[in-house]
Write a structure and sequence with these properties.
Mean pLDDT: 82
Distance between the termini: 116 Å
Largest sheet: 6 strands, mixed
């Protein structure tokens, strides 16, 4: 029967995406690949030459009785599936030796039946054909490898060699390709010996395949040696080696090799340029990347989408997002690969919302996303952290049928955990069929917050029970859970397992362990791990510095910072902020100034976090003018920064400035929070503005809708108590929504001591003795109330009670920094090396002040001793010793800053005022309540503290 052809208008050219087929029967699925189409045409041509009526291709994805033929067949012979026991025309043709040219006719059989769903058909058909020659085997190997079955292709080669069939160049090149695909370097090396043995190394395709094998298997130096000894090279050889260096990340070597390629006058193509661009992206060599871009323009390759994608990636990784977008916008009809690349570029650069907008535009243009597009947009949704958008992305994944993609499912789990939709994340986790360690890690990443952290150890234990082996990221996640939950025992067990898994030497595991031990306040263990680490990056240093700072070990924090500097590690804004906080805690002004200079040097002063810690540091170190300068220099301010300056003014007795700052905050549209009102109420209290304080308290509740906390209640009681309005204090206590805490009762007791209210003070003290039986300040305050009223028997009783309960009074101490060294003084302490000079200085000051009318107020000495002893006690108070020492050592007129752990007494307050006027120098004393700025005989607190 003669085979006829349809007119040419019915023929469809091969396409990268699909081939058009004419269906017989009920073929519903996509046809075979373009390669199979071409081979089918060749097969038909061979049949026509032999006048053999044959032909039909088995439909890929079809059922056993469904067939499809290329569009140029008009009179097909319907074949049945030979592997279900049904007689077939193909068997009959083979048995009758109708097919006579095995070289032409086996090849299409092999290629046709090598698609993923039909590979077994091709194999059995090949076995039924008895032609034992290299061409037939090569055709089968090639078809199998091209179908994606590289290891099966290698097995075919082994079978061929068992039959002692000698390979040709094409056989070896194809099998080497299979080795490179499946990264079988050992078998590839055996093939290399076969190449040499058979004298086929001069074949440029075999040589190129060897270069490609070694390059893709990471043996780039061997690939380079093979390349250098190749007698003949073409652009494929050059591209293979270039691609190998690209995989290894050696951008510099890629550029050198490309220059050599140009010098050898080998014509490069778009794939060459794409590989070179990849190298530029890896090395971050923007200059060379732009040169390659100009070459692409010169050779008219910029319209190619594959090359455009490489250009886009290069500009993205070099940080030029705008240039990447320009490349994207010049592409007339971008496919989904280009769309995906641009979305990924935006997501990598932190432009998550822009990536989401571009994804929406892609969808409107009718471009269907793939799993890579969706992976990028899930990451963007995770960063945006808006629940509604995250849920819509999940729905989108279902819509396009990617819900069973494990990698996307893992990303979805992380997304839900990030937005604290833990139950939704767990549902996605449960639906994953083939869970892996990444799935478990994604799940464990959601148990870091306080609400769900207790579940982390439960699921970690379940993971181990089900036989999964945790990796470094698993341990990091579970350590974070233990840090939040403060689960010391479980955390230590995890540490033991880390050691058993030999992962304790990994630096980021060490950092996680340091963070865990620091948060549970086991800083000695954290320091041991830190000292064992071989490589300590900035994050590790910052963790140690901030941990010591948060544990009130500011000096240790500063030591670590100086050690970090010696190791050449450059601090970032978080490191600087942590160190500034450390300076605040120990009032180390000079060190704080050094860190301020670091912040200026590295450009961190405009960072709000750093700026806030700077203002706070200067405030706590007694330098409110500098804090004010830093605050005024900032153009952008948030609520935290406003709160810091409002508190700063209040602590320095500048209530007016504090209230003015609050008004300015409101004028600039910043919304005050509960912290803001604590600062405002404290300012009113220190200034004695009772009615003003009441007004702000009511505004806070009624206008701002802020529910008062214990701190707000304490501020109001302090405000009323300082003013001596004890009736209102008791009424306020009865109207409180919550039961008074220790803070409230201590505030009332302080007010009773200030105004000598013995009756109420005694009642309040008794409550505090029950709530805090070991707190010395409660006993001391009541004792002082009794002493101020001359009730020495009651004073003795309280002191005996303290002795019985084992409560010791904290001694009053003051400290001052001179030449970078802190000197501490206790009241009536004569142990200092310069105590004689200090005593002489104090006697001199006392004599000069007495001649000006100063009379010591001995009523502030709450001891039942003689008048002369009381005067001596006053003269040797710790703050006076510190002042005398500072005056001896300080030859300049800079302010003297003294810090005291207790409240300054009234006589010392008067003494400091008079001395400041006498020496014409500012004295700043910070006691337990606020900063006192003594200038020209006056104090910033206006004698109201």
């Amino acid at each position: 029967m003669e085979l006829n052809l349809l007119p040419s208008r019915f023929l469809y050219p091969p396409s990268d995406y699909n081939l058009q087929y004419y269906s017989l029967g009920c073929c519903k699925k996509p046809p075979i690949s373009s390669n199979s189409f071409i081979q089918s045409i060749r097969f038909i041509h061979s049949i026509r030459l032999n006048s053999t009526p044959y032909a039909l291709n088995k439909c890929k994805y079809g059922n056993p009785t469904t067939y499809a033929i290329p569009t140029d067949l008009i009179s097909p012979i319907q074949l049945h599936d030979p592997f279900h026991g049904i007689p077939t025309a193909s068997n009959e043709f083979i048995e009758n030796k109708v097919i006579r040219d095995f070289h032409l006719q086996k090849e299409p059989f092999a290629d046709t039946y090598s698609e993923p769903d039909c590979i077994r058909y091709g194999l059995q058909m090949f076995e039924e054909m008895h032609g034992e020659d290299v061409i037939s085997w090569t055709a089968q190997i090639s078809a199998t490898v091209n179908a994606g079955y590289s290891r099966e292709g290698i097995k075919f080669y082994i079978e061929m060699r068992k039959k002692e069939i000698r390979p040709n160049g094409f056989t070896l090149a194809t099998t080497l390709k299979a080795c490179s695909i499946c990264s079988d370097l050992d078998f590839g090396k055996q093939l290399h010996t076969e190449v040499i043995k058979n004298g086929l190394f001069s074949d440029v395709f075999v040589g190129s395949a060897l270069v490609d094998l070694y390059a893709k298997c990471g043996e780039i130096e061997i690939a380079n040696r093979v390349f250098l000894v190749m007698p003949e090279k073409n652009y494929v050889s050059w591209n293979s080696l270039l691609n190998g260096y690209s995989r290894s990340g050696d951008g510099g070597r890629i550029l050198k090799l490309f220059c050599q390629m140009i010098e050898s006058e080998i014509e490069f193509n778009k794939f060459t340029l794409s590989t070179v661009l990849k190298g530029c992206a890896t090395s971050g060599d923007l200059k060379q990347g732009k040169v390659v871009h100009s070459l692409a323009v010169k050779t008219n390759c910029t319209s190619d989408q594959f090359l455009s994608c490489s250009l886009l990636d290069m500009y993205s990784k070099c940080g030029l997002l705008d240039d990447a977008m320009k490349v994207f916008l010049r592409i007339s009809d971008p496919d989904r690969v280009i769309w995906s690349a641009m979305i990924a570029c935006l997501e990598r650069q932190g432009q998550s919302r822009e990536a989401a907008d571009l994804f929406s535009r892609m969808m409107r243009n009718g471009v269907r996303p793939n799993q890579f597009t969706l992976a990028s947009i899930i990451n963007s949704a995770t960063n945006i952290a808006e629940a509604r958008y995250c849920l819509s992305i999940h729905a989108c994944i279902f819509k396009f049928g990617y819900q069973f993609e494990n990698s996307l499912a893992n990303d979805l789990i992380r997304m839900y955990m990030k937005i604290t939709y833990v139950q939704d994340g767990y549902r996605v986790f449960k639906e994953i069929k083939g869970k892996d360690v990444i799935s478990w890690n994604s799940l464990l990443s959601g148990f870091h917050n306080i609400e769900f952290c207790y579940q982390g150890p439960i699921y970690f234990s379940q993971m181990l029970t089900e036989g999964y082996h945790p990796n470094a990221y698993t341990f990091i996640n579970i350590l974070r859970c233990c840090s939040t939950f403060l689960n010391v025992n479980f955390g230590k067990q995890v540490h033991t397992r880390i050691v058993k898994s030999s992962l304790d030497s990994m630096d980021f595991i060490g950092t996680a362990l340091i963070d865990f031990y620091a948060k549970i306040n086991l800083l000695e263990e954290a320091e041991v791990i830190f000292n064992r680490m071989r490589k300590r990056d900035l994050f590790t240093w910052t963790v140690m510095i901030s941990s010591f700072q948060q544990s009130d070990q500011g000096e240790k924090s500063l030591q670590f910072f100086k050690e970090m500097q010696r190791e050449g590690v450059k601090p970032n804004e978080f490191t600087v902020a942590s160190c500034l906080s450390g300076c605040s805690d120990i009032a180390a002004l000079e060190s704080g100034k050094q860190f301020h200079s670091w912040a200026i040097k590295y450009g961190h002063t405009n960072d709000l976090f750093v700026a806030t810690t700077l203002v706070n540091m200067y405030t706590k170190c007694g330098f409110i003018e500098k804090a004010e300068n830093v605050f005024n220099s900032l153009t952008v301010r948030d609520a935290v920064l406003w709160n810091t300056i409002i508190f700063g003014y209040s602590q320095h007795g500048q209530g007016e400035k504090s209230l003015n700052a609050f008004k300015l905050m409101l004028n600039e549209g910043e919304v005050p929070d509960e912290i803001t009102f604590i600062g405002v109420l404290s300012s009113c209290s220190h200034m004695g503005l009772v009615e003003e304080g009441k007004r702000h308290y009511n505004l806070m509740r009624k206008i701002n809708g802020i529910k008062p906390t214990m701190d707000h209640y304490a501020c109001m009681i302090d405000l009323l108590g300082r003013a001596g309005r004890f009736d209102e204090v008791e009424r306020f206590l009865s109207e409180m929504d919550e039961s008074p805490t220790v803070l409230i009762w201590k505030t009332v007791l302080g007010a009773c001591k200030m105004h000598g209210n013995v009756e109420l003070g005694q009642k309040v003290a008794e409550k505090l003795f029950e709530l805090e039986p070991e707190n010395d300040s409660n006993y001391v305050l009541l004792s002082n109330i009794f002493a101020a009223n001359g009730r020495w028997d009651d004073v003795k009783r309280i002191r005996e009670l303290m002795s019985i309960r084992g409560v010791k009074k904290e001694p009053g101490c003051s400290w001052v920094s001179v030449d970078g060294q802190v000197h501490v003084f206790l009241s009536r302490d004569f142990s200092h090396p310069k105590i004689e000079d200090i005593s002489l200085k104090l006697e001199d000051l006392s004599h000069k002040l007495s001649s000006s009318g100063y009379v010591p107020k001995i009523e502030y000495v709450l001891h039942n001793v003689s008048e002369s002893e009381k005067k001596e006690i006053l003269l040797n108070h710790s703050e006076r010793l510190a002042l005398a020492f500072a005056l001896i050592c300080n030859k300049t007129r800079t302010p003297i800053r003294i810090f005291k752990n207790l409240r300054i007494c009234g006589d010392c307050h008067d003494f400091m005022k008079l001395v400041s006027d006498f020496i014409k120098q500012e004295i700043v004393v910070r006691d337990m309540n606020l900063f006192h700025h003594f200038r020209n005989g006056t104090c910033s607190c206006h004698d109201y503290w």
